[in-house]
Structures are given as C-alpha cells and as structure tokens.
Amino acid sequence: MAEREELTWELFGSAGRELAQQVADSGYEPDVILSIARGGLFVAGALGYALDVKNLHVMNVEFYTGVGERLELPVMLPPVPNAVDLTGAKVLVADDVADTGATLKLVRDFCADHVADVRCAVVYEKPWSEVKCEYVWRRTDRWINFAWSKQPPVIRREGQVLDA
C-alpha cells in the first residue's frame, strides 16, 4: 500500500490554528462558516473558535463511499441550508480535503448566487482538485488518514439518509 498522510489529533490542532491564521492574515472576515459534513465539521469548529465566528452552518454532502470509492457525482443530503439565511453574507466553506473538488464546487456554486463572497478553507488539497481553495494547510497527492476516520465505526449502521 502506498504511503499515506497521517493527521493526528495533535497535528490537526496546529493545522486548524495555521489555517485560521491564513484567513486572518488575508483580511477576510467571514460572517458564516459553512461546514461540509462530516470531515468539515472538525475544521469548521476549529476555524469558528480561532476566528471568533459563532455562526456555523452544516451542509451534508455524500460523495466518498470508501477508500478510493465514490459516487459518480456528489449529492446534497437533507436538510439543505436555506439560501435566504446566507443572503449577502461572507461565507467561508470548511472541509477536511479538496480531493476531486467536486463536493466543494457543488457547495461553492450553491452559495455563489446568494452570498456576498464565498471562499474555501481545507486542511488538505490534492493537485488535481477542480477547486483551488483560498486557504490550504497542506497539499498532497496521497490518501489521508484523518484522526476522526482512521478507525472503523464502533457500530456499523445502514440506511442513515433521512428523507426530508
């Protein structure tokens, strides 16, 4: 198996602070941090605290189904944020990785028609990502073992997508 990136909880703590510092240094002051669940929840939380932004929203998008396995296109899962809540806001989209970039593109495009400004912050960006994020902690072409998803679930549950 090819060598992988390893993001431990301790290293993630540093990554979150450094990513927030990039945002702060750029002068961008988001009104809202829009997290892409599930991996982006951790990133959004770290950025929210570091940038003193309390207005965090969540967008659920399914794309990856396993290591190297994904759906043909990413799909927004309910509940989808109300675009009215984002109207005129400066939005920072947070995710753990920009791999193909398809998920980030879906979310960024969803926001683009409604918000004043949308920018993306990720811990990792792959060189082939179709979205080039404004804020990136590290770039890699390797698969990433994230602290929060390295181990299998304690219990495996099927059919968790709830109909709206």
UniProtKB/TrEMBL annotation:
GO terms assigned for molecular function: glycosyltransferase activity
InterPro entries, per database record: PRTase-like, PRTase_dom
Keyword check for Glycosyltransferase: yes
Pfam families xrefs: Pribosyltran
UniProt keyword annotation of Transferase present: yes
Occurrences of domain Phosphoribosyltransferase (ranges): 9-149
Keywords, alphabetical: Glycosyltransferase, Transferase
Domain of life: Bacteria
Protein name: Phosphoribosyltransferase domain-containing protein
Native species: Amycolatopsis thermoflava
